[in-house]
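[#protein-structures] MJ: dropping DUF1840 family protein here for a structure pass
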Amino acid sequence: MLITFKSQTSPEVTMYQEHAQRILDVLNKNLTRGVITAAEAARAVELLEQEVALSKLHPEVDAEHASHTHAHHLLDEDETPEMAEKNHIGFAQRAYPFLEMLRAARDGGDNVMWGV
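AK: finished. structure tokens for DUF1840 family protein:
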């Protein structure tokens, strides 16, 4: 399932539910429907930046989380499990568009909404 985040200060950000879940868990927000108000945006940016920094400090934990999230991932014909792990897209890369949206919302005094 896809989750689309909307804000008037930036383009929409769409991501898979399992990737959005980790971000929204960090922010203590509901996956189905919610809002990060302009007043909450600064704190949300701080929390998400901390989580990104931790994921970069501990890439093995990030990879472990990803392996659970993508347990259903099918390898390409010529792809080995080692290659799939090497090509892993980490939390920092997945969170970047949403983090940019939050920064724009914070700076522009706007809300970020989803599920509405």
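MJ: nice. The longest strand covers residues 10-16.
AK: one more thing. The chain has a mean pLDDT of 85.
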